Amino acid sequence: MDGQQLSQRGAWGSKVAFIFAATGSAIGLGNIWRFPTMVSQNGGAVFVLIYILAVALIGFTVMLAELTLGRHAQKNPVGAFEYIKPHTPWKLIGYLGILTGIFILSFYAVVAGWALGYFFKTASGTFKGKVTPEMSNQIFTEFSSDPIQVFFFFAIIMGLTIFIISKGVKKGIEKWTKILMPMLFILIVFLAVRALTLPGAGQGISFYLKPDFSKLNVAVVLFALGQAFFSLSLGMGTMITYGSYISKSDNLVSSAGWVSFSDTLIALLAGLIIFPTLAFSGQPGSVGGDALAFKVFPLIFSEMPGGQIFGTLFFALLFVAAITSTISLLEVPVAYLVDERNWSRNKAALLAGFITFLIGIPAALSTGGMEFFTKINFLGLFAIIFGNISLAVGALFICIFVAYIWGVKKAVKEIHSGNPRFNLRPLWAFSVKFLSPAAIIIILITLIKKIITG
Q1: To which H or E segment does residue 172 belong?
Q2: What are phi and psi of 211, to 5 degrees?
Q3: Rounded to an integer, what distance in angstroms lies between the CA atom of residue 294 and that of residue 297?
Q4: CA–CA separation, 47 and 202 (whole Å)
Q5: What string of H, E and C letters represents the secondary structure of 361-424?
Q6: 265: exposed, middle or buried (C-beta count within 10 Å: 0-12, 13-18, 19+)?
Q7: What is the DSSP secondary-structure string of 177-198?
Q8: Fold of the domain built from segment(s) 3-453
Q9: Would you say the pTM of this structure is higher than 0.90?
Q10: What CA–CA distances, in Å, run from 93 to 58, 89, 205, 411?
Q11: Which of 102, 8, 57 minimizes the C-alpha distance to 355?
Q12: Distance from chain centroid for Cα 201
């Protein structure tokens, strides 16, 4: 790739810029409520321990593989596979990644819109005074089933995402993640400190951080593997795309390490918000999906001293975490259109964003907005197919491609650019060849079995 083409694509201004952007991609709503939910349902602290090990052994391996593939080709997922193995079906894995990212963004932006809507609700005092469970459920049901409100906030999320992506790598993604990531970190640390000072917080901390190994079983290990894998934005080509903007002189190993560490740190801090807060309300280990954020937490905020401020900042945190992810999700199809179709970034961002918005309409209407879409539950359907299965399939084939098609030796040669020593080579080679593919296959089997059995 010549210098002119590279300048048109864009590149990170610094390693810190990449780490902020990649960490922002990995950090999302899943870190703030899916991780605590999984902890709650799978043995508490022992799940946290297995999760950390899984990130180190599996998540880091796949992330380094994607970054290496992207930097070597300096292209989007489709272009990267085509560059290394031209005129073969391998580029279909790149197309799968693009499709996966679009569908995930289509429903993810809807939920992000809920977070933004609840930010304004909380700030305006909707949950001031005594709020009963029935009131909280009714508020959420009325909000999520109102097409006008849902579409309004959905459109704001997509519009902001399109705007940031249209500005390019340095002036768009890099500039905004440098603002959003420090903001996210300040919010989550402040909220964690506040939660730790609540009456009864110690009970929540004990559940969260004191392992009870009697609760360790195969299911806990499998769910920890799955959460570690899905929390890092792997399998849909985001890290291939972000890796394509990394300088050849940068150390890919430390970059992958910092992103894995930062993502895990934010998830752990989220737990320090959730479990002490739940303990304050008398339910130290009770967590459950969207009900946690949009039904249970408003109840707690209404009872908490300074609850309106705490609640407003909590939903601000959800919103910021969501935006750092929507940016990366839209960048993948945009990079494809810029690289392979020679489109301008503005045109690519507008078209990809508009198509995503159209695809997201069924998800937006599936929580009561329209009976047909609600009955099928497109939001849940998209989450299962694209947010789980498709990601795992993509990551499995990325591992196979890097390990056996491109080859570990060539991948390591790329890694050596910026890191001549690479002391982790034997461990990484073993993981990308055997350990990670085996773990992903097990995750896939578990997911499919869970879907079949209901």
Answers
A1: none
A2: -65, 135
A3: 6
A4: 19
A5: HHHHCCCCCCHHHHHHCHHHHHHHHHHHHHHHHHHHHHHHHHHHHHHHHHHHHHHHCCCCCCCC
A6: middle
A7: HHHHHHHHHHHHHHHHHHHHTS
A8: Amino acid/polyamine transporter I (1.20.1740)
A9: yes
A10: 20, 8, 42, 18
A11: 102
A12: 28
Distance CA 203, CA 62 (A): 36
- What is the residue-averaged pLDDT of the chain? 90
Buried b (16+ CB within 10 A) or exposed e, 39-71: bbbbbbbbbbbbbbebbbbbbbbbbbbbbbbbb
The single residue listed with the structure tokens 């982790």 is 424
Tokens 């990531």 -> residue: 181
CA distance 262 to 273: 17
Provide the percentage of residues in the chain whose pLDDT is more than 70.
96
pLDDT tens-digit readout, 310-348 = 899 999 999 999 999 999 999 999 999 999 999 999 999
Angle at Cα 412 formed by Cα 406 and Cα 415, nearest 5°? 115
| Side chain identity, residue 358 | L
Residue 173 DSSP symbol: I
Structural tokens at position 26: 């990995």
How many helical (H) and strand (E) elements, i.e. helices and strands, does the chain have? Answer: 25, 0
What whole-number distance in Å separates Cα of residue 369 and Cα of residue 382? Answer: 17
Q: 363 with 379: CB under 8 angstroms?
A: yes
Contact predicate 268/34, CB 8 Å? no
Q: Is 194 in contact with 310 (CB distance < 8 Å)? A: yes
Which residues contact residue 155 at a Cβ distance below 8 angstroms, ignoring those fewer than 6 apart?
Answer: 113, 357
In sequence order, which residues have a C-beta less than 8 Å from that of residue 93 and are 6 or more positions away? 77, 81, 394, 397, 398, 401
At 437, is the pLDDT very low, low, confident or very high (cuts 50, 70, 90)? very high
pLDDT tens digits, 31-40: 887 788 888 8
pLDDT tens figures, 146-155? 999 999 999 9
Question: Do 38 and 47 touch, CB atoms closer than 8 A?
Answer: yes
pLDDT digits (tens, 9 = 90+) for 410-430: 999 999 998 888 999 999 999
